[in-house]
């Protein structure tokens, strides 16, 4: 496993009884890199994310986080790793992942208080983070049920960022958002990536991931069938399933089709001896 990678997954298998959820999955995330994992429901995306953070035990393979192999960690070792905040997991449903009886500020600062930080220091950090995720400071005193879906999603990200994680795992982070909030969220994730946070962005929506990810891995029936730079995956998909995903994303389909048409025209003109356009 490459030590300069923040996250390394190698030949990972996961079984649920007789069901083979993941087969030989390998991927890595470097410092400040955004990697997208794309696949339909049931392809194994969330299983992969949960295995990385120790919520699912692999049947085979290896996982290393920041150079530390975690594959066979026991519960106590996982608790210690989570408290250090090296890796954070932002769950798909922000309402269910926030305690309904805690205010926004209490949810954000809880990890710091557990680590022994003072309440004043934690409160200062909460104000800093709500500003970073583009939320009004007045929301700190509100409960999750008083927020919009987009606001709750940003609160979960702020809570994840409070420990300055090396890698942030985002599980379908925009699936529950309307179009306007989806655009805002994707811009924010680009800001996180540009600021040096490593991202593992898990989604069924290739169109959402393509604008954020540096690389994309395509997961199909528990296996990675294609992995490469985001631009190559979108513009020149090799696997039939990847081509299907590109074809089902309207904004990507039009761009890719236009490029294909230009290439076909260029080849035709060269064949007949005409000038390349």
Q: Can you walk me through this structure?
A:
The strands form two sheets. The chain has a six-stranded mixed beta sheet with strand order 6-7-8-3-9-10, with helices on both faces. Strands 2-1-4-5 form a four-stranded antiparallel beta sheet, with helices on one face. It is globular. The chain has 277 residues and is of the alpha/beta class. The termini are far apart. It has a domain at 95-164. Helix 4 packs across helix 5, helix 4 (104-114) packs parallel to helix 6 (149-161) and helix 5 (119-132) packs across helix 6 (149-161). It contains eleven helices and ten strands. Helices cover 43% and strands 22% of the residues.
The number of E-state strands comes to 10
Task: Please tell me the overall pLDDT.
Answer: 85
The proportion of residues forming helix, as a percent range, comes to 40-55%
The run of helices and strands is EEEHEEHEHHHHEHEHEEHHH
> What is the overall number of helices?
11
* Coarse structural class: alpha/beta
Strand order of the largest sheet: 6-7-8-3-9-10
Q: What distance lies between the first and last C-alpha atoms, to the nearest angstrom?
A: 46 Å
Q: What kind of sheet is the major sheet?
A: 6 strands, mixed
């Amino acid at each position: 496993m490459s030590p300069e990678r923040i996250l390394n997954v190698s030949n990972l298998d996961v079984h649920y009884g007789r069901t083979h959820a993941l087969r030989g999955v390998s991927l890595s995330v470097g410092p400040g890199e955004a990697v997208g994992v794309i696949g339909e429901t049931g392809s194994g995306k969330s299983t992969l994310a949960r295995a990385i953070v120790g919520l699912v035990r692999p049947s085979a393979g290896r996982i290393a986080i920041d150079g530390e192999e975690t594959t066979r960690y026991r519960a106590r070792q996982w608790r210690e790793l989570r408290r250090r905040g090296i890796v954070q997991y932002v769950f798909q449903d922000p309402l269910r992942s926030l305690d309904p009886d805690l205010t926004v500020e209490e949810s954000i600062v809880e990890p710091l208080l557990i680590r022994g930080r003072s309440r004043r220091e934690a409160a200062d950090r909460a104000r800093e983070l709500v500003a970073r995720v583009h939320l009004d400071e007045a929301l700190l005193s509100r409960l999750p049920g008083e927020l919009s879906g987009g606001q709750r999603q940003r609160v979960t990200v702020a809570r994840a960022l409070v420990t300055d994680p090396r890698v942030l795992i985002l599980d379908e982070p925009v699936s529950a958002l309307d179009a306007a909030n989806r655009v805002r969220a994707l811009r924010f994730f680009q800001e996180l990536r540009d600021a040096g946070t490593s991202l593992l962005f898990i989604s069924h929506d290739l169109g959402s991931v393509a604008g954020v990810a540096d690389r994309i891995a395509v997961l199909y029936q528990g296996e990675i069938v294609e992995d490469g730079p985001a631009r190559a995956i979108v513009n020149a998909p090799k696997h039939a399933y990847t081509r299907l995903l590109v074809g089902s994303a309207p904004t990507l389909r039009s761009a890719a089709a236009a490029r294909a048409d230009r290439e076909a025209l260029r080849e035709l003109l060269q064949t007949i001896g005409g000038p390349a356009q």
